[in-house]
Amino acid sequence: MSRVAIFASGSGSNFQALVDAVEAGRLDAQLSLLVCDQPSARVARRANDHHVPCFAFSAKDYESKEAFEQEILKKLQESEIDWIILAGYMRLIGPTLLAAYGGRIVNIHPSLLPSFPGKDAVGQAIEAGVKVTGVTIHYVDAGMDTGPIIAQEAVAVSEDDTRESLQKKIQLVEHRLYVDTVKSLLHSEVKS
Ligand code: GRF
What value does the mean pLDDT take over residues 6-13? Predict the structure, then answer.
């Protein structure tokens, strides 16, 4: 069974969707590690509740990105991790982790990339007045939300949508699409 590490910084609703799928037998994976750069984030409590080991760190305790990524790499290797799943990890992945796990790191983003990369993709979509936005799951490269696309699903924007209501619709799609996509990636072991 593939061993997976989830990287997250925030609330962790996607983390929860993946944990729920594993616990319900809908996803055949070992969620072996949460890597979290915000020790007080809700996702760290979720990991604790579901007995997923957590490596929580503060970037300010390290002298460089390379230094904390070396530490993360050590944890990944100790846990024999096969895949890295980013779920709201608010940092670019650096050369240390890309060299070790390139082609086995995926991310989820709340827009139809290449539209609205970076922060607040939902707010960007509202601001732009688009009628359709969505969700993208992609391999991670050195850029900001630029790697090869694996899966996408559209979400309609209604006239009366606010940032909050649109975010809710998008997250519902995210939770289903991430579980399904991770499942097929682990099954096929396809690399980018
Ligand atoms: C998601 O919308 C994801 O697309 C983005 O960060 C958000 C994380 O949300 N990369 P959550 O912490 O999983 O609720």
Answer: 97
